[in-house]
Amino acid sequence: MSYIMLALQEPAHGYVIMQKVEEMSDGDVRIAAGTLYGAIENLMKHKLIERVETEDARRKVYVLTDKGREILQLDMQRMQHIIDVYKGGNINEEI
């Protein structure tokens, strides 16, 4: 889900999202179309992404919402804290 949200900082349709996720993960994460659209529905349900109207009615384009950006930022801070704790060697003290 995080990779999808990162891919949707700019409007994109399904195929572009799949390409961006694979690129961002250095090929480690490949999302099948069915998995992607299930995740998209879930992200839309939680109002983290929204559909954007485009001139091409054949393609559904999505983008991160303000709430989605906020959640992505909080997740980044959480991950950075974990890295900082790990690097500081204070793992037992923080837990």
TrEMBL record:
One Pfam assignment: PadR
InterPro entries for this protein: Metal_resp_DNA-bind_regulator (IPR052509), Tscrpt_reg_PadR_N (IPR005149), WH-like_DNA-bd_sf (IPR036388), WH_DNA-bd_sf (IPR036390)
Protein name: PadR family transcriptional regulator
Domain Transcription regulator PadR N-terminal: from-to ranges: 7-73
Top-rank taxon: Bacteria
SUPFAM superfamilies: Winged helix' DNA-binding domain
